[in-house]
Every structure is written in structure tokens, then in C-alpha cells.
Amino acid sequence: MRILLVASAFNSLTQRIHAELRIRGHRIGVELALGDDLLRARVARFEPDLILAPMLTAAIPEDIWSRHTVLIVHPGPKGDRGPSSLDWAISAGAAEWGVTVLQAVAEMDAGPIWASEPFPVTACGKSELYRNEVADAAARAALLAVERFASGEFVPEPLDYSRADVRGQLRPYHAQEFRRIDWAADTTATVLRKLRSGDSQPGVLDELFGREFFLHGGHFEDRLRGNPGAVIATRDGAICRATIDGAVWLPQLRARRTPGGPATFKLPATDVLGPRLLAGIPEVPVGLVEAATRDTWSQLRYREHDEVGYLEFAFPSGAMSTAQCERLLAAYRWVCERPVNVVVLGPVRDFFSNGIHLNVIEAAADPATESWRNINAMDDLVEAILSTTDKLVIAALAGNAAAGGVMLALAADEVWCRESAVLNPHYRLMGLYGSEYWTYTLPRRVGEEQAARLTREALPVGARAAEGLGLVDRVLPGSAAEFWTRVRQEAETFSSAPELEDRLLLKKQRRAADERVKPLAAYREAELIQMYRNFWGADEPYHRLRRNFVHKVCAQATPAHLLA
């Protein structure tokens, strides 16, 4: 069918559904909800059989939904209505929630129901929940609704609050009055629910050192204690704040914008507060192995089992600053000294990596210089992985990856993806040529022609399509927990396989042969020549595009690469 996706942003869920529908043979168009007249014009040109809205914050005009079937994906169970469904679910401590696909009508979220899927509410931030359990349920529900529409026989179920399975309700916007933390009274569990319900937007407005900030993220701390509300420690850019019965970690802050002042954006908490405000507050590190055995916040953890080393990393939004790259590189080098023959890289959930940290770069005194430092730190990390010849390295993608994050994964010997993962193996939309040795790793996996197409078209690639291209080696179904169970089983099978020694010898020989044909240093130099131009060239679009991305500047029209 011809299916037009209408979305307020081409976000992770919209990309997921875009990829799922494309691999099923549908012709997909995308239109960002930037105005009713633009939408009317696009509908007239595209002539869709069906309009599907995976993520929409604006109403569809009546003259469109009255002439076309328009299906809205709503992150709430049957009967749930309102703009803050997930916020309310998390703040209330719901164990289960749902996604409903309903038909657009005059009243918001009140149309006939085409599909509904439940999901468990994992104890995590709203954005992480959205990209995992919500996205999985939304994809199932949307695909079922599309199948039902295509059959021409399905009759959608009218919203009827007298039905036993309709348990939702109309809920108001989850404003800051519902999020406010009372540090003198709220327990750690209550504080975490409030923090997690606001992550990553809009955050929780609070006061620190006499100034107002939005708090982003929220992680339990098992040992540190202090006066409720006080900042009692820092760690790798995060701050730890005491509660009445424990403490929580806050990885990111956003200063409240002053009237007429510049726009603000999320940054590592210690970067926002600065050394003067944090003077006297101790940095409390945690070791890689210790972090894996405790309930505390850490971006890096290490576990070992049956000659397999698992180096876990998790960075907010998948962005990796210069400092984060350097810490991960140091951890990787340490792991390479361990008595293991298989190394598995990747977070337990959520983003694998999205490459360089655009927010940290935007906040730098000299963004071009910080961009250069960041890309070189990424290159150092990728080079270390590519140069590892005595261990089999597996990149395990439980979640999405983009740009340099995809190329970080491709540096490994094997790339294993959860079935729900979406990859964006390109840099073009940020005005960058790209680095991370992509001119070596991408063509050797998919060929020169496909590499050129993937980077030129700049469209998301679902895990199954990526497997078909040779971009990834294995696709594993199930939840993030089920994915990691399979990863551990298969990695440990690899580590004990008699042919592993031969495979490592072949790996060493191939790396040496490739080095003779063209050294890794030559790939890096050629890429960095282009990147230098991107960072310092007079007419290059990178700085403008980065600024627009960081400050969430709304596009004036749907980008050309999304027009089918």
C-alpha cells in the first residue's frame, strides 16, 4: 500500500515503523506536521491508501480525516486520553501500560480502536521506556492495524468506557506542579518516579545553589547518604543528591531559560554547575567491576564469565563526548588485558551509540575545536577495536545506533542486533563527511555501491534489512533482557568453540593483509581532511545544522530525503 506517515518529528518510533513497513513492501512517505496547508498539499500529491501517525502532538484537519482513514498511535491503554500518558503511568508506578491505535475523529484520542497492545512498565526513564517497551508494543499494534486495514474486513471497536477492557481515562497535561520534588519529605522511590516521568522532556524543575534548573535522568544510589536535597558527590559528569532515605544520581541538567535570554539545553550536570558551585563536593569514582555488582550509577560496567568479557556502556541519548570516549577507550584497553578471548561491547538497553556529543560541542567556547577533539577521541576508540587481533569482538546492539555509533559497532568482528533496533549509517544530515574509519568498515561489509547508497539516501535501516545487506551478522528477537540472554549464550559458545583459535589467526592475517593494501592511518587521514573542512570551512553547513539540532529548531518543510 501507499502509506503516509505523519509525525511531529522523525523520531525513533517513527523511524522504527518506517523501517518495519518498508521491509514489508509498502511504499512509505513521510510528512512532518508543520502546518495544515502543507499536510493537505502532501496528501494530495502522495495519494495515500492509509495515513498513519506514529508520533503526533497536533490535530489532523477534519477535511483530511473525513476523506482518508487516519490512524493515530497513542501511548496509552484503551480509553486513555491526553498528552501525558506515559508521564502519568510512570509517576503512578503502573506495572503495565499499553499502546492503542485509534482512528482520528473530531475529539482527540476518542476514535474507534484498531489495535491495542500491552507492555510492562520497566523501572527506567520515560525516554528509555519509550524507545524499548513502548516502541515494541507500538510496532506490534501499528502493524496489526495496517494488516486489518488492508484486509478491508475489520470493523474497528468504538470507544466504550462500559467495557471491562477499557480502563483508561482522560488525563490532564502533566505539569510541573505534579512533578515538584519535596526533598524534605519525598522518599527515594517517589523522587525517582518524578524524575523518570519527566525524562527526557520536560525534566523536573528544581532549585540548586539558589538557581533553577531542570533535572534530567534519575538513578538509584545504594551507599551514599547526606542531608536531604544536598549535592553529596559527583561522578563522571553526574551529581548525587541525598533524599530522606537514600540518594539519587542526576546525570544531566538544563538551566531554566531567563526571559529574553539564550535557549538552554541538556548538558552533563557538572558542566552546568561548574567548579565554583561544586567546590568541596567529592568526586566518588566506582570501578568497572564494582559497578557491575552494585545498584549505583555508572556509565561503564564490566562482567566476566566463561572467558567472555562484557564491557557495558550507557550514555544519555547515545551521545559520546570527548571525555566519555576517553573513559571508554581506557576501559576497553583494560579489558583487552584480561584473560578472555571474546569481548562483548554494548549497553544492556537503549541506544548503542549516536556518535559525537553535539550538546557538549555546542556549549564549548570553540565548537569547531571541540568537534575536532571529539571526533579524534571516537577515532582512537574505533582504531583500538579494529587493531585488536587476539580476541573476538562482538558489538551487541540492544537499541538504536546512528552516524559514528554505527561505525563504532562495525569496528567489531561481529555485529548482533536486537530485532527492534534501527540503524542510521550516515552523517549527511549533520553536514559531515564522517569519520570513525567508515570508509574502511562500511564498504567491506556491504560493498562500495551499497555504502554509497546508504550514506547518500540517509534513511533508517531496520535490523532485518541491515542483516540482508550484510550490515549486521545476527538479528535476535525478543525484549532487551531476552536479547542479552541469547547474546551471553552464543558468546560463551564462541569462547569455547575449538575453531576460535583458527578464527583469531585468520583475523590477524586479514588485518595484516588489509594494512599492507591501505593502512588504517591512511583511512583516518583522508576522512579527517574532509572533517576538518566541515568544521572550519567558511560555507559548510555543520555548525548551523548542529545548532538547529541542539536547540530543536523546527524545520520549515519536510526534509527532501523523506519525500517518497
From TrEMBL:
Record-given protein name: Hydrogenase maturation protein
Annotated Formyl transferase N-terminal domain residues: 39-142
Family matches, as Gene3D superfamilies: 2-enoyl-CoA Hydratase, Chain A, domain 1 (3.90.226.10), 3.40.50.12230
Spans through the membrane: none
Pfam families noted in UniProt: ECH_1, Formyl_trans_C, Formyl_trans_N
Domain of life: Bacteria
SUPFAM superfamilies membership: ClpP/crotonase, FMT C-terminal domain-like, Formyltransferase
Chain ranges of the Formyl transferase C-terminal domain: 176-255
GO molecular function, one term: catalytic activity
Organism, as annotated: Nocardia uniformis
InterPro entries linked to this entry: ClpP/crotonase-like_dom_sf, Enoyl-CoA_hydra/iso, Formyl_trans_C, Formyl_transf_N, Formyl_transf_N_sf, Formyl_transferase-like_C_sf, HoxX-like, NiFe-hyd_mat_HypX/HoxX
Matching CDD domains: crotonase-like (cd06558), FMT_C_HypX (cd08701), FMT_core_HypX_N (cd08650)
